[in-house]
Amino acid sequence: MSRCGARSHVVAFGATKYTLRFAPDASGTVNGPVSRALHAGGGGAGATDAEATAVARGRGAGGAAAEAHADIAKRSPTRARLRLHTLIVVQRAQTVTRLRVLHRELAKCRKCPKMIGPVVHGPPVPSRVLLIGQAPGPHEGKLGRPFAWTAGKTLFRWLEETTGASESAVRECVYFAAVARCFPGKAKAGGDRRPDPEEIERCSSYLSREVALLEPDLVLAVGTLAIEQVLGEKLKLDEVVGGVRRARYHGRDVDVIALPHPSGASTWYKLEPGKSLLARALRAVRAHPAMRAALAPPR
């Protein structure tokens, strides 16, 4: 079971455990009527299908949903907490479904003639931490995941040394995106070509939708292009790496932690002041509440 995108979830209140299971309907959407709170022990009062349905449908219902929850909270605090957990898990499952729909659209995109497919994206992780890179390299398309080559090894080594989380744990709990989703090809002067403004704009429509679905609290911007796009201005790495900035990104206020690109060709993060600034930035990643919550073991 994925620790961050599961369709079943165990909730424990004291000695009593509840297993919440969710299944898609014919349209592929997870809905309240098919969500069930199953009491795993004996003698306890689990949430009924009707209650789980009411919670799932109560999203955005305003005062009526709040009053319904308040009423049950008075009658049974345990049941009220279970209902809230049910709502959270249903909403996460719905986010996963909507991200899968978006990924199918991404996979069909052929808007940029200079780009080399296939489209590369991470799994549909409903995370409040969004990591944004520049663009996939020549190997990521074959391997089917972002940061799958040498730069990725360096990035995941940074994160594991700082947070203790392995590459697989990070991939399960952080949503990976990029300024551009296809390989841009090689530049005439060597190295990977930088996506042009039109390509960036075309991909930004997908990023905007992802931000709306994920509602991230923390954005990890990796590399100068991603930093520039997230913060909306060009800054030297010395000016931006090492701290936490507040920014408005696709209509959402987020914390931004900038990281240098982990390319082996870069020497910035290997020498001072880059080495010390990177260490400060990684400590900020480890300490951020959204990252701590994302990497917390499942309960």
Question: Care to describe what's here?
Answer:
By secondary structure, this protein is of the alpha/beta class. The chain folds into 2 domains: 8-105, no CATH class; 115-295, 3-Layer(aba) Sandwich (Uracil-DNA Glycosylase, subunit E). The chain is 43% helix and 14% strand. It has 11 helices and 8 strands. It has helices spanning 49-57, 63-75, 77-108, 140-143, 150-163, 167-173, 197-214, 224-231, 237-240, 274-287, 289-295; strands at residues 8-13, 16-21, 36-39, 129-133, 175-178, 218-222, 245-249, 252-259. A 5-stranded mixed sheet has the order 5-4-6-8-7. Helix 5 packs across helix 10 (274-287). The longest helix is centred in the first third of the chain and has 32 residues, at 77-108. The chain is globular and about 65 Å long. It starts with 7 loop residues before the first strand and ends with a helix. The model is unreliable at 10-66 (pLDDT under 50).
Key phrases:
299 residues; five-stranded mixed β-sheet; alpha/beta; Uracil-DNA Glycosylase, subunit E; three-stranded antiparallel β-sheet
Tell me the number of structural domains: 2
Compute the separation of the termini in Å. Answer: 13 Å
Level-2 CATH architecture of the largest domain: 3-Layer(aba) Sandwich
Q: Give the full name of the CATH homologous superfamily of the largest domain.
A: Uracil-DNA glycosylase-like domain
Largest sheet: 5 strands, mixed
Give the spatial strand order of the biggest sheet: 5-4-6-8-7
Total number of beta strands: 8
Q: Hey, roughly how much beta strand do the residues contain?
A: 5-15%
Proportion of helical residues:
40-55%
Order of helices and strands: EEEHHHEHHHEHEHHEEHH
Looking at the structure, the CATH topology of the largest domain is Uracil-DNA Glycosylase, subunit E
Shape: globular
- CATH class of the largest domain equals Alpha Beta
DSSP summary: helix tally: 11
Which class best fits the helix and strand makeup? alpha/beta
Rg is 21 Å
Q: Look at the structure and give the mean pLDDT.
A: 81
Poorly predicted runs of 5 or more residues: 10-66
